[in-house]
Amino acid sequence: MELDIVELSRLQFALTAMFHFLFVPLTLGLSVIVAIMETVYVMTNRPIWRQMTKFWATLFGINFVLGVATGITMEFQFGMNWAYYSHYVGDIFGAPLAIEGLMAFFLEATFVGLMFFGWDKMSKVAHCIVTWLVAIGSNFSALWILIANGWMQNPVGAVFNPVTMRMEMTSFFEVMFNHVAQAKFVHTVSAGYVTAAIFVIGVSAWYLIKGRHEALAKRSIAVAASFGLASALSVVVLGDESGYSATHSQKMKLAAVEGMWDTYKAPAPFKLVGIPDQEARETKYAVQIPVAMGLLGTRSLTEEMRGINDLVIEAEARILNGILAYDALMDIRAAKGAATPEQIARFEDHSADLGYAFLLKRYVDDPREATTEQIAQAAEDTIPGVLPLFWAFRVMVGLGFMFIGVMLFFFIRANFYGMRFPRWSLWAAVFAIPTPWIAAEAGWFVAEFGRQPWTVDGVLPTALSVSHLSVGQVALTLAGFVTFYSVLFIIEMGLMLKYIRKGPFMDVAETEAWNRRHNDRLSGRTSQQPAE
User: What's the pLDDT at 430?
Assistant: First the structure.
């Protein structure tokens, strides 16, 4: 096994996936905010809300198109760079992706054109329904993709077939309602809502600083702050649910995130900060909050959370058991369809740990020939990189609590201080625009890097999942993707900045006339007095 191929393939997928996720959260959140704004327009018939809907929908459209382009490109890699993975688990992983394309993506694609070009061809109510269908389609896309990803984190509803040498689905219901997938979905979608809320507040704050489009900006802040506050609170609550799920399905990931080398007496403390040293097997300079991790991770004061050292010992035992499964599998394969019931029963007794035997493929072709040292090293390989996981998680959590503060501040100022915002807060909102993306990328880093060395946790190691390509081929496609995505990023930023600077350019005369009449009413003028 050429590890260079594995690392290059991982790097390529990481770069393309993380780049794609620059577009996803804004698409998820902005679609709902736009739908809310149009709903207010339908209810009030005020042109300012129609203008707001069209303006933010324009930015949504730019982001949506580039998100689709990068998402399609990313999925090609399953066939290019991860051929054995696609062969091994394609029956399960492919199903939700196919449903996403057939149901959710086509729902978006069908109605997004009507949303942009149907303003004067449909009734207000019909157009509003279309906008909500676009938002629902965007969120359904996330659901099915996260069901697929959640299965990789917690492979349920499937078994390994020793005859076909593939995983086969046994229960679509279990795959769909996998508790890890559901927790990831609501957490990810809520994070997308926060991203869009921060974006809308930041852009609106910039307009207020410049003294432009103030009516639109203030109303946009009011909507985004209310929507964002509920979303930010949801992210924290639903993130806790994701952590609780990991306690049962991905104990090594959670121990690494916590930098917990030894098993604490229940309830475990939470390390606020520290410097994990993987070589020394300790977290230096740790500042701990007693009991907190036990409550968050197990929701009890008596349940134990196992540390990395104990989990490595457990992994070694599972590798030994996996070798027995591998031996039984080879006997079944040698029988060429005439395996005895005893051979099949022996395999089934140990099959849950077959993936652990595959960890030895990195060191020896036949796991049954592995030495004690190789088994011990394979068990060590189940420890992901603790230091980056430890701090990525804390960056994500710290920013999450910051978002609650930002949303609460703008919510209070919008609703109880007559839309008056201190200038420093407006500048802070502008500079805060990139922070939700930092939090989102940190969260995905924890989710995916923390799963290593597995592509499918406990089932298929990453080192076995790659295609049989040369280093040059992968390096060439990596360079191509980096170039292509760099061009797309420049296009995205150029278009977004162009239309933000341009501001709302549709329905200007109608909106300004309505605003003048509205201001006249507020100032006590009669409706017959001409507005200046």
Answer: 96
